[in-house]
């Protein structure tokens, strides 16, 4: 699918997708002979994960770490749990001010 299709599917802008590529959250896509980016369907679920993780309060750096663990063949579950626990503690400390 092309970048516009991916943007429509995931609900993020094409600029956001390009930003994710520059930041290394998405691999560089293959390109057609006319230079258009071509993404496989797996990228849509990766973008969905990135958006869900951001909604949970994780930074892009946190998300990059999780994706790196996954790409290295490791289960990132304990790492994600630790990150989310840290976010929860931050929120709880704000409530008790």
Give an account of the 3D structure.
- The longest helix is centred in the C-terminal third of the chain and has 19 residues, at 77-95.
- This protein has helices at residues 3-10, 14-22, 42-55, 60-71, 77-95; strands spanning 30-31, 37-38.
- It is 64% helix and 4% strand.
- It has five helices and two strands.
- By secondary structure, the chain is mainly α.
- A two-stranded antiparallel sheet has the order 1-2.
Write a compact overview of the structure shown.
This protein has 97 residues and is mostly helical.
Radius of gyration: 16 Å
Strand order of the largest sheet: 1-2
Structural class: mainly alpha
N- to C-terminal separation? 48 Å
Summarize the SSE layout with pairings.
Blueprint lengths: L2 H8 L3 H9 L7 E2 L5 E2 L3 H14 L4 H12 L5 H19 L2
Antiparallel strand pairs: 1-2
Properties at a glance:
single chain, 97 residues, two-stranded antiparallel ribbon, 5 helices, 4% strand
């Amino acid at each position: 699918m092309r970048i516009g299709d991916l943007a429509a599917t995931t609900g993020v802008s094409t600029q956001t997708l390009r930003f994710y590529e520059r930041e290394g959250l998405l691999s560089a896509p293959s390109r057609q002979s006319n230079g258009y980016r071509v993404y496989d369907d797996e990228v849509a679920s990766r973008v969905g994960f990135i958006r869900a993780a951001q909604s949970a309060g994780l930074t892009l750096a946190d998300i990059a770490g999780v994706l790196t663990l996954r790409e290295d063949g490791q289960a990132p579950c304990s790492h994600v749990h630790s990150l989310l626990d840290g976010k929860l503690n931050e929120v709880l400390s704000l409530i008790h001010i």
